Amino acid sequence: MTEKDQGSVPSRQRKRFPGISSRAYEHPADRSALVALRKLSGFDTVFKALSGLLPERSLRLLFLSDSVRVSDAQFSHLNDMLRDACYILDLEKVPPMYVTQDPKPNAMCIGLDEPIILVTTGLVELLDEEEMRAVVGHEVGHALSGHSVYRTVLLFLTGLALKVAWIPLGNVAIMAIVTALREWFRKSELSADRAGLLVGQDVQASMRGLMKIAGGNHLHEMNVDAFLAQADEYEKSGDLRDSVLKILNVLPRTHPFTTVRAAELRKWSESRDFQRIMDGHYPKRSEDKDTSVTDSFRESAGHYADTVRTSKDPLMKLVGDIAGGAGDLAGDLGGKLRSAFGGGQGPKKPDSTGPEETTDDGKGQNEG
To answer: Looking at 55-69, 118-132, 140-154, 164-178, which range is the least confident one?
Structure first.
């Protein structure tokens, strides 16, 4: 698609990412789940077959009849942002976007056949231009990742769970699926936050937007560094009881807590992965078909292991200590078994003359 079709990049020149794959910005847990789902033969076909049951056609008519469709004639500044976001992330077809009257700041991307973006008046009135640009990029990121299909199913199942709550065990089965989808949904929000940053390319604007969503339009009363310090305090404060309460608090939510989102996005913005994308080195959509499910799951497992290892949360630290203790115990037991069955030789002690050296082939070294 040409620049003329999608709109030009704004006056503050932003980098464009031709052919970028959503794998470039997806959170490891989100990415591994999506890769696995996409590899299942006929999975999307089955989901789209549900369109007769899902109220998608009704939603499209509702938005068309009772919301304002963004265009050159209506909310033209949002239309420019939408086209810019699609141009930067190289999304070929610009999805329709609607503004609906709702004082609560919110935005969503739903739809089985084609994604639809919906933003509330509360959000439009709350954010400035650059903050709103990050939000539009966030929703375009959802569209590029194919999140809208699974998000629509989650909305449908959540409503269905309420309708069948009176049926014995019926609600339990549905809520088990809803709980699992919500966990993926929360990770998908972290992915979309990253997409929003790639579109806006302004970390401070992304931080301000999240801060306003948490505390309202009183920017002069808030501070980004203090807001991020809240996330750090939230993670490491309390004891095991607080850790359990954190889990219970987040289970019914579709979005991670706002301070957590801000901290995660700041961390990613300072990472090597983000810098490589900005330098033009990123996975391409043309390579998606060759993506390994095993590698994606391995990366996701590595991410969770690293999270447990570096977390300041009391429960996560306990899990890490237990895992480390089990590893030490296994190593000690292995040494004793080798001593018993290997000719009486225990584990070899390191040479006391100095630290062990590694060869130049990189084995035993971790790349930063």
So the answer is: 164-178
Q: Comparing C-alpha atoms, which of 102, 94, 99 is closest to residue 64?
A: 99
Q: Which residues pair with 109 in a beta bridge?
A: 117
Confidence of residue 168 (pLDDT cuts 50, 70, 90): low
Looking at residue 363, its pLDDT comes to 42
CA dist list (Å): 143 to 17, 149, 243? 16, 9, 34
Return d(Cα 137, Cα 117) in angstroms, integer.
11
**DSSP designation for 284:** B
Residue 69, beta-bridge partner list: 98
CA gap 25, 196 in Å, rounded: 10
How far apart are alpha carbons 157 and 159 in whole angstroms?
Answer: 5
End-to-end CA distance of the chain: 38
**Residue 44: CB atoms within 10 Å:** 15
- 156 exposure class (CB count in 10 Å sphere: 0-12, 13-18, 19+): middle
Instruction: Return the axis-axis angle of helices 203-215 and 129-145, rounded to nearest 10°.
Output: 100
Express each pLDDT in 176-208 by its tens digit: 666 667 777 888 999 999 999 999 999 999 999
Q: Indicate if the pLDDT at residue 329 is higher than 50.
A: no
Asked if 198 and 229 count as a contact pair (C-beta separation under 8 A), the reply is no
Cα(134)–Cα(115) distance, integer angstroms: 18
